[in-house]
């Protein structure tokens, strides 16, 4: 065969500059494309052999080799798969591969927004021109009496095809790397790129670096190292769950996510119908110290990595987990607009969501203690899941746990049943254990219980539960004086009115707060002089305003009112009511101090108030000596 020169059947002269421009940020996919083509070529040969249409030597070891030659500026990908005849090159490389490039161009040439091309568009073989100035294919088909062939193209629209000299079946593709791709001439970069996309490819991939000095031991002797593949050909998720041990699951987690904390538990997904999907989802142990949740779900198509965290396929709340999902029915080249509108993708997402909901409800029912041990770590996922996904909520609604004041984990029904004779359908909660310690003590002293809801997600979570469970309401522990904390009134109406007016005047004067809201209550606890309450509605309004405040709105625009409760059973308060002979300055000192003490257990004092509080405390101490 003489050299055949030809024009690629392409209508645009300058397709490559456009491809390069559009795919610039993703140009490492050439490695994925060439290696997956090599892998396909091996699979095709094996299939033909099974159909008796190809003969394979029984000692054949199928593998893919990547050779990096930094000096020559080349990267070569070779396989011992099916190979191509010159006719096949014309058909598959000249026509088909270019038609992919043309489709790409047709779809994207008018779009000016780079973000529109999310994910990876399949340019297959031609993605190699994103990093190479010339690409050369040396190939020999498996077919009897096939002639080897060489194809060459410099990224323009012309190619050369001539008789080759390859002697073994398979294909070798050499990329003469251009300036755009020179980062891949670095061994580390090339290795990481291959590992990113090809870690689970079904055939072993070896990387060789031409001219690399062999490693030596301390005495200077060359260490003979067995070449190691860059990938695992049978990742754990392809096995049947019954064949996997806990140790293997943990090991797979560690090596895949480089997370050395053990996962809490995992879900092995394995289904063939109505779609093919395999994978493992792990519930990671949270870094509670910083409260960060960084999930990672890697998506694969037949063991070829597609992308991370594609929220169209994985329900958003599950992106907080870590895991791998392999679905051969998904396109390798996912474009987000396609996924968003795809009913099939939605089915996958629903399936995954259901599996997770079933697994955790199962765990709750059969191993409640283990479930409780996990609860602090998994609750953000499950709460977020409930907020995001109605169906998920319906499955898990009865397994949400609440930690009570005795550090026990109870369900909503259990809490409400235990409190039914004291406060029906009302859930008292603590949002900050330290800040609200005073109120917690009060509750405990009076045999009342509350639950701890202190995570960032909890305000949204409580509103959701209130909207789903009719009649149930959440009230913060310091929202109001509970009837169980108050004794029967000993003052008559007239006396109470008089005392209230007297103290109101005293406090308004001392604090300089004209609109101070105040109430006298005979509280059961004699040690508590005063406390501040803020109605639940006001507090939620305040929280909301704080949220909007982040977007530039001043939360102080909407002042919320607190009420100062004075305990008429406390000696100091009694003294203020009954003794008319207290010096004005002492009176003022007591009022201010009582107010600050109440305030401290409600919210942090401002720096100005804190300074005053400290100075006043010192003044009071001085009075003792
Ligand atoms: N290493 C190889 N061995 C044998 N045939 C190959 C090899 N690489 C490419 N081919 C042939 O060239 C064709 C075009 O490859 P290309 O990567 O452009 O597209 P594809 O693999 O069909 O689709 P995709 O866009 O998903 O990659 C392949 O379908 C295959 O027939």
Automatic annotation (TrEMBL):
InterPro entries documented for this protein: HATPase_C_sf, HSP90_C, Hsp90_fam, Hsp90_N, Ribosomal_Su5_D2-typ_SF
Superkingdom of origin organism: Bacteria
A family per Pfam: HATPase_c_3
CDD domains on file: HATPase_Hsp90-like
Keywords assigned: ATP-binding, Chaperone, Nucleotide-binding
Family assignment from sequence similarity: Belongs to the heat shock protein 90 family.
Name the UniProt record assigns to this protein: Molecular chaperone HtpG
Species whose genome carries this gene: Fusibacter bizertensis
């Amino acid at each position: 065969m003489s050299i055949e020169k030809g024009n690629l059947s392409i209508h645009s002269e300058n397709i490559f500059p456009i491809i390069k421009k559009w795919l610039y940020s993703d140009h490492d996919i050439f490695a994925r494309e060439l290696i997956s083509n090599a892998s396909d070529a091996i699979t095709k040969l094996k299939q033909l052999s099974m159909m008796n249409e190809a003969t394979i030597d029984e000692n054949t070891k199928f593998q893919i080799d990547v050779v990096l030659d930094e000096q020559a500026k080349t990267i070569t990908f070779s396989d011992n798969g099916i190979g191509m005849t010159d006719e096949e090159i014309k058909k598959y490389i000249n026509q088909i591969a270019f038609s992919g490039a043309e489709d790409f161009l047709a779809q994207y040439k008018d779009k000016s927004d780079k973000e529109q091309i999310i994910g990876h568009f399949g340019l297959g073989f031609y993605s190699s021109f994103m990093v190479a100035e010339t690409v050369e294919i040396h190939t020999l088909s498996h077919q009897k009496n096939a002639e080897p062939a060489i194809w060459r193209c410099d990224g323009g629209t012309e190619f050369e095809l001539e008789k080759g000299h390859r002697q073994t079946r398979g294909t070798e593709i050499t990329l003469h790397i251009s300036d755009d791709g020179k980062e891949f001439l670095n061994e580390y970069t090339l290795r990481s790129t291959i590992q990113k996309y090809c870690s689970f490819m079904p055939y072993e991939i070896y990387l060789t670096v031409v001219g690399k000095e062999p490693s030596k031991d301390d005495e200077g002797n060359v260490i003979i190292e067995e070449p190691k593949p860059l990938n695992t050909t049978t990742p754990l998720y392809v096995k049947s769950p019954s064949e996997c041990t806990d140790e293997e699951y943990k090991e797979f987690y560690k090596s895949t996510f480089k997370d050395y904390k053990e996962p809490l538990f995992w879900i092995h997904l394995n289904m063939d119908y109505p779609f093919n999907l395999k994978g493992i989802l792990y519930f990671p142990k949270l870094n509670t110290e910083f409260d960060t949740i960084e999930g990672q779900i890697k998506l694969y198509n037949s063991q070829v990595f597609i992308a991370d965290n594609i929220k169209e396929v994985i329900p958003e709340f599950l992106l907080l987990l870590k895991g791998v999902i392999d679905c051969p029915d998904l396109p390798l080249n996912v474009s987000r607009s396609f996924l968003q509108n795809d009913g099939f993708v939605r089915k996958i997402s629903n399936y995954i969501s259901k599996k997770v909901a079933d697994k955790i409800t199962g765990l709750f029912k059969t191993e409640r203690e283990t479930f409780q041990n996990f609860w602090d770590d998994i609750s953000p996922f499950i709460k977020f899941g409930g907020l995001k996904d109605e169906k998920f909520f319906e499955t898990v609604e009865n397994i949400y746990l609440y930690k009570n004041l005795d550090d026990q984990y109870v369900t909503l029904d259990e809490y409400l049943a235990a409190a039914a004779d004291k406060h029906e359908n009302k859930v008292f909660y603590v949002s900050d254990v330290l800040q609200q310690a005073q109120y917690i003590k009060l509750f405990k002293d009076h045999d009342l219980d509350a639950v701890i809801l202190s995570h960032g997600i909890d305000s949204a979570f409580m509103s959701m539960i209130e909207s789903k469970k009719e009649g149930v309401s959440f009230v913060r522990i310091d929202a109001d004086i509970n009837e169980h904390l108050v004794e029967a009134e000993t003052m008559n109406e007239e006396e109470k009115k008089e005392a209230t007016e007297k103290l109101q005047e005293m406090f308004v004067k001392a604090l300089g707060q004209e609109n101070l809201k105040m109430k006298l209550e005979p509280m059961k606890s004699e040690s508590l002089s005063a406390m501040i309450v803020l109605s639940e509605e006001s507090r939620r309004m305040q929280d909301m305003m704080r949220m909007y405040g982040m977007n530039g709105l001043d939360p102080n625009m909407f002042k919320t009112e607190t009420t100062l409760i004075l305990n008429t059973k406390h000696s100091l308060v009694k003294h203020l009511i009954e003794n008319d002979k207290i010096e004005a300055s002492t009176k003022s000192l007591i009022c201010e101090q009582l107010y600050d003490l109440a305030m401290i257990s409600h919210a942090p004092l401002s720096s100005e108030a804190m300074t005053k509080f400290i100075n006043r405390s010192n003044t009071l101490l001085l009075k003792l000596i």
